[in-house]
Fold these 3 entries.
Entry 1:
Amino acid sequence: MFEQLITVVFVAIVLGLDAFSLALGYGLRGISRANALKFTGTITIYHILMPLIGLNIGMAAGKLLGIWAARLGAAALAYIGLEMLIKGYQVIKTRTVTFAEVRSVLEPTAQKVIKLKEILLLGFLVSIDALTVGFGLGTLRVSILLTCLIIGTIAGVMTLTGFFGGGYLAALLAIMRKLQEGLYCWYWRLKCLSRGDSVKKILLVCSGNTCRSPMAKIIMEQLLKNANIHNIAVESAGLYTTNGLPASEAAQIVMQEMGMDISTHTSQVVNEELMTEADLILAMTREHRRFLTGLFPQKKHQIFTLGEFIGQPELDIEDPYGLGLEAYRKSVQQLKEILTVVMNFL
């Protein structure tokens, strides 16, 4: 009896690995607690029903075929074990990924909502092996009730562990990502403090290069002039724009209110030449930074959001386009405050 119990527990753990892996993946991506509990309940029920069916078939086969049924059951268990070993080896062998690749996959996203039919289908797919295993155990004449309860309970616990483990791992990776970005940022800021001549050109980047970045450019140039700094050039560009567009009318009006003129500004698209020449690239939002680091990975240690550079990594400068003059005035005030802090590190 004890040997049979050990066998059932071991088999239950092996069967639960598929459910654990699937749950871990969803946990890393983000899943609601309600969805996780529904999924766990479904997996538990499937891991009770499937072995139950297999056990009854196996016991019936045992009565009919005698010793050959036991041999057939052992072969079924051996086949399942071998199949899982091969799958595991293939997954491990596939390729090695870097921490940066993991971070790019695990960028914060909204919690995934899994529909009931998806839960039922996925639960069935990760539980189907339990049917064959149940048949194999049935030929060994183990206790039906105890076996089903053990397999179902262990599968449920492993699924729940996968969900919560994935969630905690994702949170840990997010902290490590922010820490890494913060270290890069402080490294660059300290470099700027220790070597006043290290920054020769700053590139300010937004979406269309008709609102935020041209306003930031002229504000930055004014701050540099007021500080009597003449060896730093400032450029602006856009990620999703075309060359030759004027600054938006609202941007021109708001800058005129501050005594600054951007009427002669024309937009330009971010390109390799601009990125190569820039010593420091400051983007308006985290989306812009991600896009820039993807296009120009060799410059990733010189690309920051304005918020990151002043120690507020969650801060984005939102696009005021089409939102009226007050939205532009708010953006200008925000840019002026942030760029004044940036000046302390140049």
Entry 2:
Amino acid sequence: RRAWPRGARRAWRAAGAAHRLRGVTDVPPAPFTPPAPARLERAALQGLLDALVDLGYDVVGPTVRDAAIVYDAVRTVADLPVGWTDEQEAGRYRLRRRDDEAVFGFTVGPTSWKRSLFPPEARLWRARREDGALRFEPEPAPARPLALLGVRGCELAAIAVQDRVFLGAGVERDPVYGARREGALIVAVHCAVAGGTCFCVSMQTGPRAGPGWDLALTEVLGPKGGPDHHFVVEAGTPRGAEVLARLATRPASAPEQGAARAVVEATAGRMGRALDTTDLPARLLAGLEHPRWDDVATRCLSCANCTMVCPTCFCSAVEDTSDLTGEHAERWRRWDSCFGLEHSHLHGGSVRGSIRSRYRQWLTHKLATWVEQFGTSGCTGCGRCVTWCPVGIDLTEEARVIAGRAVGGAGAPTGAGAPGAGSAEGA
């Protein structure tokens, strides 16, 4: 563990204390009765972006860049991937044009909301020597809160996982994550498309987004993208209701609400992958010497792609820098990966010197020991690790073989109490 210079820990804790004073997560929420679902016309969607900006948010959402759908700053509907979809399989990702003008007619790309809340690199503090003493300065909080537009159920579950890691009870509150998470408004999208590597139904995280959203959209397309193209909008918090009140909507009729539910239910039946989660942690840990670990090690490149695209992985490394005069120093945190040889390096060398041991650590932590550590799985079923593995290693297949139990058909709910289309509300 890297030692803290005198005064640095105090600066880090001061930033965390300031977050606690400004935040709302330590205060029990007031009772909230959500308004009735509303219908928002496709032509009025720009009003949502305008309302978020008017309320002081920096809006981040999906956009097309470098032949992929990634999350970046958006200001107009034209910035969104209108009319695009993605095709995903193990080791394969392609964009193609749809035959309609769906706004959210795709699944998830290589980036996740982790980049916005837990950035790939962040300065933790800086120090200057003044009058013979070091003066430590914590990093200031962002000037404007974030509005995350287009958060899917698997991604919302991943944000909840990282909340436990960085802000949960019994852990030292992380001021960098907290400063970005605090005040962030989440506009979820209940999925109308399932990708070839999706298995959120198995992980009970989607396709309907679960708890935690402020506002949620279900996109309903008219016949062949005709004039009936609209969104059913739900508010899950007072902040979401405030945004909804600014939009040009009307109450959604019972048939319109039923059509929105049907979209999500259909998506639940089209999962490209499935994973039997019944007693999965125990079954995986019973297979620590399974020969499959040697097999997958011959295929794995230890490239760390899976951990970089994963929305829940949180490994990081800390680096100290100073100038040549010794008058200025900074501490930076950067993403790291358990697939790197140096990640487990101790005084005598790396604890996990083989690819076999590193892949086993990743898979068993994600699906087994994470449950012991944080009370939930570290996997939300987004499928990114399968899609973006350059050799197409499939987490669901490896877990099936090592845990020793076949899964049901694609999209079938697995594990005790699986809710199928995701019944949790956004309150």
Entry 3:
Amino acid sequence: LLASCHPIASLKLRPDATIIHHGTDSFKGARSVPQFYFRHFSVNSSTISLLMVRDGRMVTHASIKGQCSRKNFYGSKKLETQFAEIESQHCIAIRAALEVANIASAEFFSVEELKSFFDAIIFQRARTATEVAKHAPAIEQMLLFMFRKRLETTQDVDFLKKFDENLAAGNMSINESTASAVGRGLSAMLQNAPLIRDLSVCFIRNRTDYPFIFSDSPVVFYNNYAKAVKNRGVIGLQCPGLQIFYPLNSWTCAMLFDPKTYDGPFRGYMQYDAHKRSDISKLNALQMHHALNAVYFGDPTNQAYVNELWSAHQSRLSIPAAECRTNPDLWLDGEPVEGDFFQMMEPQLNFDLDLSFVEYEPVSEEEYVYSPRSPDLVELVKSQYVNGTKVSECASTNQ
């Protein structure tokens, strides 16, 4: 997986930058969100505050070491060690991003830093328990459908009847192991990571007294442009209108966006200063709606704000669930698609993100026609796999 999809880049530390590396032998469980990321929000580098999104239970001064950790989550100590090595590279890229966002004299991303930053976003998106949970029902539905099709070839009518009866009664299930689900998801996402390199980057700098919070699945995909489209997925890596939000610390959030779709005062700049509390709270609510178990914040004195935000949204919080549609009514190149096939899609979050500084013309479901944002980039990525070359060699087309 890692050798073919994510060759570790050779990044160099910027002046005065330091990296605290924690190998897998320093903890008993595998982490789906790394410790260095928590420290960017912590007020003392060792503790964090959190709110459990299901019941609103608040915990302050919780140890960072125990967060987003699960024993054997990745199924292999060797894989966990490789992930730790990748994390050290992503840590450098994220520190570089924070410098670009907040230090006027900072140099712009090097080519390696920018590519690693994009890879860090995709890697974090794919590795969490949220991703496993949201796709598990759809994967099981697909596997049951495939298994039934296999049974049809046996021509054992009686057995097939019993299978259908048990399936209807809820007595049949095919479950994918967590390690297998994570590996499959990571493999697919890392292979296609270059497909987001046509997105533009802007760092939202929080100039309010409300902090950015983050969830146990902090990389959120959204699509304001196509939020009216419900009959297909619109948050794929090459979907027109894709937006990606990733808080980097309490006062900085990375926003990646389709430059052909969105406009506003942030266009043409690497930084945008957000002065409205409402915008910060909307971005924080996005994190709550994408959380599996918890949202986190650095300063315990902000617990009243976080609790108030949760109270306003808790009735609409639900785990995002991907869908598997078998033999949907789809057309390709003007012809109906025949035969058995699946349409896997992840719906948008149950939240209307309406940022005051983002302008766009929404598309209706009737008007929406999918086509990749950058067909040439898609063909380039496809050709690399056909020819066996490394994903990391894909040229960045960002901005």
